[in-house]
């Protein structure tokens, strides 16, 4: 009320306004959670459409590298990401932005997904002078 009508009302008046149409606290919580779910879905749709629109393709998967400053690179992949797609992404999009250790952007941290653990990928990263770490 205060925001929409620029009028302050007492707690008692607010309680009466809510109860008069038969609203309960449970009903208000449910409506708020449904609104939050809709907002979250709208956000997911917005992000997906903008990432895919940048690549001008319909995608099934997105690969991204993130640093403390933000995104280092993103790539949209048709279908599921496989070892070759991931290798290409790291070599073409991520490694050019990395530096030899101990400079900034010199450590690449990956989870323990099988496609991340190729010997060729490890060699390329280490040849650049970077350090490769895997999460447990």
Automatic annotation (TrEMBL):
Tc1-like transposase DDE domain location: 62-136
Superkingdom, natural source: Eukaryota
Gene3D superfamilies: Ribonuclease H-like superfamily/Ribonuclease H
GO function terms (MF aspect): nucleic acid binding
Coiled-coil regions listed in the entry: none
Entry protein name: Tc1-like transposase DDE domain-containing protein
Organism: Piloderma croceum (strain F 1598)
């Amino acid at each position: 009320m205060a925001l929409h009508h620029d009028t302050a009302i007492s707690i008692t008046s607010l309680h009466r306004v809510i109860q008069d149409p038969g609203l309960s606290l449970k009903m208000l919580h449910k409506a708020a959670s449904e609104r939050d779910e809709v907002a979250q879905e709208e956000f997911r749709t917005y992000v997906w459409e903008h990432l895919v629109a940048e690549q001008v393709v319909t995608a099934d998967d997105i690969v991204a590298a993130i640093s403390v400053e933000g995104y280092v690179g993103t790539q949209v992949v048709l279908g599921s990401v496989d070892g070759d797609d991931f290798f290409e992404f790291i070599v073409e999009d991520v490694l050019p932005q990395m530096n030899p250790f101990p400079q900034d952007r010199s450590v690449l941290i990956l989870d323990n997904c099988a496609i991340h653990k190729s010997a060729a990928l490890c060699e390329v990263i280490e040849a650049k002078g970077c350090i490769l770490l895997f999460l447990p």
